[in-house]
Specification:
- By secondary structure, the protein is of the alpha+beta class.
- The protein has one domain.
- It is 42% helix and 18% strand.
- The protein has five helices and seven strands.
- It has a four-stranded antiparallel β-sheet with strand order 1-2-3-4, covered by helices on one side. Strands 5-6-7 form a three-stranded antiparallel β-sheet, with no helix packed on it.
- Helix 1 packs antiparallel against helix 3 and helix 2 runs parallel beside helix 5.
- The N and C termini lie far apart (56 Å).
């Protein structure tokens, strides 16, 4: 990106300092449940429809793709933000390959500012701007986001009063409600396909 802003990892991966208070923030359970459920709702009927319509793509191949996609989504949603006296670090569990999502670590002393950027949906995201001019995306979907930005303010001296989560909980609650409706429709669709299959 020409502006120098990036969410890619810096060149060194710093380990949390010993004998310091460490705080770990994870993706909100509401967000994880909603997005995983939506993925299931959107993909599960596909192999059944493919089999019923004699599609050129085998249902078994679709199941494999759905499984791999679900695993990738679960990996993305397993992101953790770790704060200690030295740095902020975005990391993932050991089972997530580093080439898939490597994470990054940034010492507090290198952070100069939090720079806002507008999204295509009209929201705002923020980047940590470092002394070298590089930016790293502030995680905004974690549970306890208010506490996270308080720690950021305490460690960096940057005013974070105007920083809000990218999406409010009620937005995900609405999406979860719509996903439940979609799952019910999926159940009816799959049940109908199975009934037609038994009748032939």
């Amino acid at each position: 990106m020409s502006s120098g802003l990036s969410d890619s990892p810096p060149s060194t991966d710093l380990a949390p300092a010993q004998d310091t208070e460490v705080q770990t923030f994870r993706i909100s359970p509401l967000i994880r449940i909603t997005l995983l459920s939506l993925y299931v709702a959107l993909t599960t009927p596909l192999p059944f429809l493919a089999k019923m319509t004699a599609a050129p793509i085998p249902a078994e191949l679709l199941w494999l793709g759905i499984g791999l996609g679900g695993l990738a989504l679960h990996a993305a949603l397993s992101e953790q933000v770790v704060l200690d006296d030295r740095q902020i670090q975005v990391t993932y569990p050991r089972w997530v390959p580093r080439f898939f999502w490597g994470g990054w670590a940034l010492p507090w002393s290198e952070i100069q500012a939090l720079k806002p950027r507008s999204t295509g949906q009209g929201g705002l995201v923020y980047y940590f701007l470092t002394t070298s001019g590089t930016g790293y995306l502030l995680p905004m979907r974690v549970a306890g986001f208010a506490q996270l930005v308080r720690v950021v303010e305490a460690k960096t001296g940057i005013d974070t009063q105007d920083i809000r989560p990218l999406a409010q909980p009620w937005m995900y609650l609405i999406l979860l409600g719509l996903t439940v409706i979609l799952l019910l429709i999926d159940g009816w669709t799959i049940g109908t396909i199975l009934s037609l299959g038994r009748g032939t």
